[in-house]
Write a structure and sequence with these properties.
13 helices, single chain, mainly alpha, globular
Length: 373
């Protein structure tokens, strides 16, 4: 009989055993540490670790299982967005050289000043809270998508700023006026309040519902797609080309978020700690400190609702708010004679762009019943 001891793989090696299938996975998965932290997280009153499953109510048996449908990593994302930036810049250049901007009617310029310019502040506000998501999200692929989306929203705020600077060369002030509209125009206060509420939402997964699964579907489809028909009536390719590029970004934001929530809705994890338990850390006396320096996760109450129930709760909370906030813009549309009937257009967006995507990913959705005063 052999007396040689059988080789036994240590728990420390287990988390990193993953066979990647492509370049995207090679550079993406398993970058977040769950053990051997270099420093303690000191800026939260809760005694949680840097990457802690208690930062969301949702549970997952493998936070590293998510894959971006576009498989974006730094190089592919930058190359793709470089092409988009060139499209926007070329559109601006052509509009200036062809005299599109200076030939826009004063009435159309006034409408854009009120309706479009304030959106740059909303985009930036959503970008700020998307940085909250990328800070606290578990799973490197999820964090990576949130990082790129934050870049996109910053870029959109900058594009709209650049567009406004082009406009005010020929049509009076845009930037200062847009800020004043956001702060003081009654029609914009529900949207402003919505984004401010998102900014104080702590659960990073709920933030994704409040942005990607609700507001961006409504406001994004309205201002970056439906509004293009009005722009073309006025010969405004300066705005419409930028909108076409932004709409491409929105498609990816929608797809990666819905893919994530489909995965989470189908996940059968029973505890927020299932993932770490599967890696063998529950009984390990190493430096994942169950109840030593770290607050004992076993004493944290478990969420009683399933993932799909929590997701439904968030959608039911945020979608009506988003619908009402966008619908509140109706007086401004009427003031400037915009031919878009906002209630009818939002219901069209709901039926053609929102309900199908919820059905495709098998997520719960209740149609919003408009209650007009």
């Amino acid at each position: 009989m052999s007396t040689n001891s059988e080789f036994k793989k240590t728990l420390r090696d287990q988390p990193w055993d993953y066979k990647t299938k492509n370049e995207y996975e090679d550079v993406t998965v398993r970058q977040q540490p769950y053990v051997h932290f270099h420093y303690r997280h000191k800026f939260d009153e809760r005694d949680y670790e840097i990457f802690d499953p208690r930062y969301t109510r949702l549970k997952c048996s493998d936070w590293e299982a998510f894959r971006d449908p576009k498989k974006f990593w730094y190089t592919t994302y930058v190359n793709n967005r470089k092409k988009m930036a060139e499209e926007v810049e070329n559109g601006f250049t052509y509009a200036q050289e062809l005299g599109v901007i200076q030939n826009l009617s004063p009435q159309w310029a006034d409408a854009l000043r009120d309706l479009y310019t304030p959106i740059r502040h909303l985009e930036y506000g959503e970008n700020v809270q998307m940085q909250h998501v990328l800070r606290y999200a578990l799973g490197t692929a999820i964090e990576q998508c949130a990082t790129f989306q934050a870049y996109d929203k910053t870029g959109r705020a900058q594009w709209i700023t650049q567009w406004a600077l082009n406009m005010q060369e020929h049509h009076d002030d845009f930037l200062a006026h847009g800020k004043d509209v956001l702060l003081n125009e009654p029609a914009f206060q529900p949207l402003r309040h919505y984004v401010e509420e998102v900014l104080v939402t702590g659960d990073w997964a709920e933030v994704l519902v409040a942005e990607n699964l609700t507001l961006d579907l409504l406001l994004g489809n309205l201002m970056y797609r439906e509004f293009n028909q009005e722009a073309l009536k006025h010969g405004d390719t300066h705005l419409s080309i930028m909108n076409l590029v932004i709409a491409k970004q929105l498609d990816w934001h929608r797809d990666w978020a819905f893919s994530l929530f489909k995965m989470l809705a189908e996940d059968k994890a029973e505890s927020r700690w299932d993932y770490l338990k599967s890696l063998g850390y529950e009984d390990w006396e190493g430096d994942y400190r169950w109840g030593r320096i770290l607050s004992d996760p076993r004493e944290t109450p478990e969420e009683t609702l399933s993932n799909i129930e929590i997701i439904q709760e968030w959608i039911d909370k945020w979608y009506p708010k988003a619908f009402e906030a966008v619908l509140a813009l109706a007086p401004l549309f009427e003031k400037h004679g915009i031919s878009i009937n906002l209630p009818e257009t939002l219901k069209k967006i709901e039926e053609e762009a929102i309900i199908p995507i919820y059905k495709k990913y098998k997520l719960p959705f209740k149609q919003y019943e408009i209650a007009l005063n």
